[in-house]
Known about the structure:
Blueprint: H1 12-23, H2 26-40, H3 46-60, H4 64-77, H5 82-94, H6 98-111, H7 116-128, H8 132-145, H9 152-167
Amino acid sequence: xxxxxxxxxxxxxxxxLFGKLKTADAxxxxxxxxxxxxxxxxxxxxxxxxxxxxxxxxxxxxDMATAIEHFTxxxxxxxxxxxxxxxxATAYYQIGQxxxxxxxxxxxxxxxxxxxxxxxxxxxxFQELNQPxxxxxxxxxxxxxxPHAAGVSDAIKAIETDLEGREL
Length: 168
C-alpha cells in the first residue's frame, strides 16, 4: 500500500482557492474551479497519477470497463486519494451502476467533504431516484461551496418550483 497524504483535498492552497471561490465572479470562479480540479488530481505519486490519467483517458474514449479497472487499481494502492473514488463513481454512473457509484461518492465525500463534483453527482442521482428533497439539499450544499457551479442554481430553482407545485 502506498503512502498518500491523508490531507489530500485539504491543503492550505485548496483552503485559499475555496475561500476565493465563494466571492469570485462567474469568470473567476471558472478559473478557480479548474485550479481546484488540478489540485484534486495530484495524488503525490507519479504512478498513481498515471493510473488516474489512464482511467480518465479510457473514460473519455467510452471504455468504462478499462476505466473502472484503472480506478480500482488506483483505489487499491491509494485508498486515501479521494479523486480515485470520485473518478470510479463517475464511471459506474455512466454505465448505470448507481449502487456502486453511490458507494464511491460516499468514500469521496468522507475523504474530501468539499468535493463539489461528487456532491453534484449525488444530487443528480437523487433527482433520478425521484428524491427531490434530498437532491435539493445536496444542490444547496454544492451552491454553498461553489456558488457559480454550472447548472446548480437552475437545478435548485427547478426543484423548488416542482416542490411548490406539489404542495398546492
